[in-house]
Design brief:
By secondary structure, the chain is of the alpha/beta class. The chain has 2 domains: 159 residues, VC0802-like (2-Layer Sandwich), CATH 3.30.2130.30; 163 residues, Vaccinia Virus protein VP39 (Rossmann fold). Strands 2-3-1-4-8-7-5-6 form an 8-stranded mixed beta sheet.
């Protein structure tokens, strides 16, 4: 595979809508120079080491993709031929496993499962013709992965080096009702400019995702630390020596080179050594539901960070407030998937009063998909940041100082 050694190979980082600006910040912080940023992608150039690092370290991205073919594609037969033309025998192990996923917007396709099935058939047929046998395939994220993006009359076939989306960290064992995705939680923390040193409070914590993400950020734990498999580990050549590549500590005897597998182990070790739990800030998660608190605690245990979060079952207004000022974040019900807007109105009012009375001088954040309810918080916000919580168009309101200033100015 060319990207094992080509240091100038295009790498496409995909993310949810409205998250690319935060993914771009992460990429730049990692030392890369984006060559293109769209609504839901960031494009850089790099090699296999970069693919590995991006998969391991990105907090706001969904997939790390390597383009294989861009072509005109009018119908499903065109897609089959395009997929068959790729030299899969040099990318996949004949006795391995692969999966195919796709996003398709083409008027000839009525069943969105069909493109993935045809691509899968084309790969299997090509492997059988070239290798006299073919790898197994299915929907599990246990092997190599292929991603198809088909928009109108253009299709792009990618090698998906992530497999299971990066948003699925592996710690959310009990999601609860309408949970916040891990990537969105990380982006909200970035948007609030939380410094990872001052206290972070998360009342109405639900499954606890933002609190868990906050601890992981504060201790510099990479978000991919809990994932057992990335799809790049099943690409052909992963265990073969690359001349000129070295993994100094993992493979000191390999003077002629190192395998991608050895290099990956070195990257993992370096990430582990970079963790630091010596001076973590106070992080508090509360919820009026004891069951929600227990669920959040279970998820924190799975993430290995439960001992660094103070959990408490209480009304949000009884959340303990540290003396040192920090950031407080709310993700209340919106009255869309959960809750009745009329019943939620006094809750939003109370949130504003609580932040003004108990968190004066703090940075407050509240994300909601209900603009009318947001007005009831009645705090001046410094900025509104657009986000999507699943399909819901939301705004993150950031309140500097949490001061009541009358009606917000639109």
């Amino acid at each position: 595979m060319k990207f094992w050694t080509d240091k100038n190979y295009p790498i496409i980082i995909s993310c949810a809508k409205e998250l690319s600006r935060w993914t771009e910040v992460e990429v730049i912080d990692m030392g890369y120079h984006p060559i293109e940023v769209t609504e839901n992608t960031v494009v850089i150039k790099g090699d296999m080491r970069d693919v590995m690092k991006l998969n391991l370290k990105l907090r706001t991205a969904h997939r790390v993709l390597v383009p294989l073919l861009r072509t005109v594609c009018h119908d499903i037969k065109d897609l089959y031929q395009a997929a068959y033309s790729i030299d899969w025998e040099n990318l996949l192990e004949a006795d391995g496993y692969f999966s195919v996923s796709s996003v398709v917007h083409n008027f000839t396709i009525k069943d969105t499962r069909i493109p993935s099935l045809y691509t899968k058939d084309a790969i299997a047929d090509r492997m059988r013709d070239k290798c006299s046998r073919r790898p197994d395939s299915g929907g599990e994220n246990i092997g190599a992965a292929i991603f198809v993006y088909w928009e109108k009359d253009e299709a792009i076939i990618y090698l998906d080096t992530s497999g299971e989306p990066l948003s699925k960290r592996g710690y959310r064992k009990i999601p609860g009702s309408a949970p916040m995705q891990e990537t969105l939680a990380a982006a909200c923390l970035m948007a609030m400019k939380w410094d990872r040193k001052s206290p972070f409070l998360f009342p109405m914590c639900g499954s606890g995702t933002p609190a868990i993400e906050a601890v992981m950020m504060a201790m510099n734990r990479v978000p991919g630390a809990l994932k057992g498999h990335f799809a790049f580990q099943s690409i052909k050549g992963y265990q073969r020596i690359i001349q000129g590549e070295k993994a100094l500590r993992i493979a000191p005897r390999q003077h002629a080179g190192a395998t991608p597998e050895q290099i990956w182990k070195e990257i993992i070790l370096e990430a582990k050594e970079a963790e630091d739990v010596t001076c973590l800030p106070k992080i508090i998660a509360t919820d009026i539901s004891p069951e929600a608190v227990e669920n959040a605690h279970t998820n924190a245990i799975a993430a290995g960070v439960a001992s660094y979060i103070d959990f408490k079952a209480c009304d949000f207004a009884d959340t303990p407030i540290p003396e040192e000022k920090g950031s407080i974040f709310f993700n209340p019900e919106y009255g869309i998937r959960l809750g009745d807007p009329k019943e939620l109105a006094p809750i939003y009012e109370r949130i504003g009063i609580f932040m003004n009375e108990k968190c004066r001088g703090w940075t407050g954040g509240l994300i909601t998909g209900n603009p009318e309810l947001s007005k009831l918080v009645n705090l001046y916000y410094k900025t509104r940041v657009p986000f999507f919580n699943g399909p819901i168009d939301c705004r993150l309101f950031i309140y500097e100082g949490c001061e009541i200033k009358g009606q917000n100015i639109e």
